[in-house]
Amino acid sequence: MEYNFLGKTGLQVSQLSFGSWVTFANQIDNKLSEKLMALAYEQGVNFFDNAEIYAEGKSEELMGTILKKMNWDRTSYLVSSKVFFGDGRKKPNQTGLNRKHIMEACHASLKRLRVDYIDLYFCHRPDKNTPIEETVRTMNTLIQQGKILYWGTSEWSAQEIMEAHMVARSLNIEGPVMEQPQYNMFYREKVEVEFNQIFKTVGLGTTIWSPLASGLLTNKYLGKFPENTRLGREELDWLKERAITEDNLKIVRKLNKLALTLDISLPQMAIAWCVKNPNVSTVILGASKVSQLEENLKSLDMLPVLTDEVLRHIEELLDNKPKKPAF
Ligand code: NDP
Question: Would you say residue 220 lies in a domain?
């Protein structure tokens, strides 16, 4: 495993990390969750991703129990949480990025994760009803209190991230140092175009999510619709509708063919393709089976397969390179 610095910080994060969305305390049982975390850690993964909303707090509880049981050296791993969506309760102030919810959410996550501090704390979405200054000040307070070490954003626009930076700079307090955007072969705009300037100026780190577009970038949706997969879950119908389209499947079929000729699997090709982007600090993997995680962790061995020529071939098949502004 190799480690990247998270943006301009001195913090090192493994090129591949592991997250619990949909799976922990929901799709898979606790024993399997434990096996997956152990496998990831053994292979050098040092970052585990979570959020208050995942399984309405139960994903954090489970991760906390596993961390306690594993008894890994606390200095050897990073654990995250995210605030915004709440833990399922929806009364006023039980969601959002106001000072009250951020403080209460952080305390609840610390308890559920059974840690003294959260390494990376994300604002899960922008909050259009709270002034960014209130959020920035609260995040800074949490850092001063030692409850979180670094704070960042998820799915914020470049403009919102820059506003947070300007506020932090004018107050001489801590601004956001990382963003967690979606990034995969089908979803490229933010990482490849929108954030370009902030990568250069503030040196934003990125912990990217859904490198396989929730499983679309595998060969399993190319034939008869498979059983027991994420995109077959009733509550995720909206995601299936977005992902499983004729156009997307046509591209996946071609990518899969290319992967076969290169003697690697499509998930490995898709993950290695994300890792290749120098603005990606870590690729967060998800898995519902040990075999998937084993396969995905091997993506790093496949990096040399993605030569310039292969990358050009992939680009031709995708035919979706986002356009950069001319000047
Ligand atoms: P992926 O796009 O990689 O999807 C993971 C899913 O794809 C697995 O659970 C599994 O689902 C399937 N899969 C994985 N590997 C394979 C394989 N080798 N062969 C076949 N199927 C495979 O990542 P996620 O969407 O899970 O995102 C990763 C993490 O990012 C999350 O756990 C979470 O921590 C974070 N995240 C953050 C978000 C945010 O808003 N900040 C939003 C979403 C995720 P199945 O077997 O059920 O088909």
Answer: no
Distances (CA, A) of 37 to 165, 285, 300: 34, 11, 18
- Among the options 41, 54, 77, 183, which is catalytic? 54
Domain that holds residue 52: 3-213+268-304
Does the CB atom of residue 266 touch ligand 1 within 6 A? no
Q: Which residues pair with 207 in a beta bridge?
A: 282
Domains contained in the chain, number = 1
Answer whether residue 282 is part of any domain.
yes
Is residue 49 within 6 Å of ligand 1 at its C-beta? Answer: yes
Question: Given this model, what pLDDT does residue 50 score?
Answer: 98
In this structure, the residue with its CA closest to atom 19 of ligand 1 is 292
List the chain residues with pLDDT less than 70.
none
Query: What CATH number is attached to the domain comprising 45?
Result: 3.20.20.100
Query: pLDDT (tens digit, 9 = 90+) per residue, 175-186?
Result: 999 999 999 999
Question: Which residue's alpha carbon is nearest to atom 2 within ligand 1?
Answer: 210
Segment 125-141, tens digit of pLDDT: 999 999 999 999 999 99
Q: Is the CB of 180 under 6 A from ligand 1?
A: yes
**150 an active-site residue?**
no
In this prediction, residue 325 carries a pLDDT of 79
Position 293 in a domain:
yes
299 lines ligand 1 (CB under 6 A): no
